[in-house]
């Protein structure tokens, strides 16, 4: 597929192969663009901005609704593209398309609810008006783990607010992004409002960071690249939103509903083969119930089926690449050296890694401190509520945390004391379009989703009116 700039499909000299992580075969090639195309995309979005931002909210809403409808009609086809380039099981991929699309629908509605304020003035012949206006051209840089949702979560509120967008998807998963652009074109979204380019991440990133016409950078990916973008954005003082790494604790208290906790920890841990930033990374179980929990957990994990995501019944697809496999392997190796035991799994072939449980996990292990980004579930025990809160908060990350308890007091205490942007109480899957998703500490800045998510694309303007 080609690049989508200013409503046109374009090539650039070099190309980039897109491979299927399940089979290793090249499924397509896309342009490997650089600075020149990055600047062209900014110019297109910059020129499209006055017209797009001056439409009424209902007009913009109608475009978004048409885009939503086309994606909805083609969800199976988009899901298949995603499975082929990213690896996740087809059912999960279609689920992601629906989730991604829920942002477009929600923000198509929210476009009409960008409210300002009036504030009582200090003089009788003055009025204070507060308006919200779109920030301008926004640049979105997205990762490979959610090839559709990480784009729509940024682009839908941006377009709804009246911004125009330039998008660089991850090099591993450009096809889903370009397919979404194709449907945006079919939906009649005017040329230049949404542009998608693939290519050299560093060159494209630098071009966008240096360009003062880009007023906002929104990024999901590694903490390392996030910090780099934050530094770069200082050159022209751009607004910035960052969704970075996480290291989610999953706390199971002694009064938890065990069946429920097991089902939810599996959903949280093994979705996308453990390659999500809100995946349970560290499972803390009250000592009294640890044995009962591990037994049930192991039995259910043994039912998971690893394989090519296009095959019926597969629940865990391949990891994205060799480096991902090596990281899981290194975490297992380190845990074994430090006294952990592999209770289930532990082996891999090519990019396929078995879902793995490590028991006897301790806070010194790598897997208890760094994001594994793979299907590894370390289980540690704890004795008191205070202790587990302290251990759960002892990390530079602060994206998602989970607490399982049937005691309302505990649920409230823990949810308030955990230093995380998202807390799932008896809920392993909290992400929805209308709720604010985002992290504390080094997990990021800003929120995506809900009424909070659209604020990221709006500037506040205070108008002071004096009259006679
Ligand atoms: P991961 O390790 O999950 O691939 P990255 O943070 O490297 O996470 O990638 C997330 C996104 O950031 C991808 O689209 C990638 O191409 C992009 N990216 C990587 N390095 C840079 C950079 N130096 N400048 C801008 N974007 C970058």
From TrEMBL:
Segments forming domain Aldehyde dehydrogenase: 11-463
GO terms, molecular function: succinate-semialdehyde dehydrogenase (NAD+) activity
Classification via PROSITE patterns: ALDEHYDE_DEHYDR_CYS
Record keywords, A-Z: Oxidoreductase
Highest taxon of the lineage: Bacteria
InterPro entries in the record: Ald_DH/histidinol_DH, Ald_DH_C, Ald_DH_CS_CYS, Ald_DH_N, Aldehyde_DH_dom, Aldehyde_DH_NAD(P), Aldehyde_DH_Superfamily, Succ_semiAld_DH
Pfam families: Aldedh (PF00171)
Coiled-coil segments on the chain, per record: none
UniProt-listed GO biological process terms: aldehyde metabolic process; gamma-aminobutyric acid catabolic process
Active site: 243, 277
Family stated for the protein in its record: Belongs to the aldehyde dehydrogenase family.
Annotated protein name in UniProt: Aldehyde dehydrogenase
């Amino acid at each position: 597929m080609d690049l989508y700039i200013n409503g046109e499909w374009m090539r650039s000299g070099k190309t980039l192969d897109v491979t299927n992580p399940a089979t290793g075969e090249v499924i397509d090639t896309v342009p490997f663009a650089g600075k020149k195309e990055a600047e062209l995309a900014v110019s297109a979005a910059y020129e499209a901005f006055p017209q797009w931002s001056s439409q009424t909210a209902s007009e913009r809403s109608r475009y978004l609704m048409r885009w939503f409808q086309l994606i909805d009609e083609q969800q199976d086809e988009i899901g298949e593209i995603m499975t082929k380039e990213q690896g996740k099981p087809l059912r999960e991929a279609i689920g992601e398309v629906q989730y991604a699309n829920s942002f477009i629908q929600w923000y198509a509605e929210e476009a009409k609810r960008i409210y300002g304020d009036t504030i009582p003035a200090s003089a009788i012949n003055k009025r204070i008006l507060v308006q919200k206006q779109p920030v301008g051209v926004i640049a979105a840089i997205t990762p490979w783990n959610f090839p559709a949702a990480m784009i729509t979560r940024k682009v839908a509120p941006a377009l709804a607010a009246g911004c125009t967008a330039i998008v660089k998807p991850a090099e591993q998963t450009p096809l889903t992004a370009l397919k979404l652009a194709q449907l945006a074109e079919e939906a009649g979204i005017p040329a230049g409002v949404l542009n998608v380019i693939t290519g050299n991440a560093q060159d494209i990133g630098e071009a966008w960071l240096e360009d003062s016409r880009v007023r906002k950078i929104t990024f999901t990916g590694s903490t390392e690249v996030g910090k780099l973008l934050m530094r770069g954005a200082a050159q022209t003082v751009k607004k910035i939103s960052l969704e970075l790494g996480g290291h989610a604790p999953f706390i199971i208290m002694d009064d938890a509903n065990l069946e429920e906790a097991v089902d939810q920890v599996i959903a949280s841990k093994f979705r996308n083969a453990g390659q999500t930033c809100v995946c349970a990374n560290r499972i803390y179980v009250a000592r009294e119930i640890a044995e009962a929990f591990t037994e049930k957990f192991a039995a259910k994990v043994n039912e998971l089926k690893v394989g090519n995501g296009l095959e019926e019944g597969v629940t865990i697809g391949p990891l994205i690449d060799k480096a991902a496999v090596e990281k899981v392997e290194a975490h297992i190796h380190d845990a074994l050296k430090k006294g952990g035991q592999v209770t289930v799994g532990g082996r891999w072939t090519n990019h396929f890694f078995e879902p793995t449980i490590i028991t006897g996990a301790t806070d010194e292990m790598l897997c208890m401190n760094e994001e594994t980004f793979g299907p590894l579930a370390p289980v540690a025990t704890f004795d008191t509520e205070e202790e587990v809160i302290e251990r759960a908060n002892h990390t530079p990350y602060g994206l998602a945390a989970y607490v399982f308890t049937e005691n309302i007091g505990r649920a409230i205490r823990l949810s308030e004391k955990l230093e995380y942007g998202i807390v799932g109480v008896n809920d392993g899957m909290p992400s929805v379009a209308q709720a604010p998703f985002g992290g504390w500490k080094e997990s990021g800045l800003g929120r995506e989703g809900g009424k909070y998510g659209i604020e990221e694309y709006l500037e506040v303007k205070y108008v002071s009116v004096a009259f006679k």
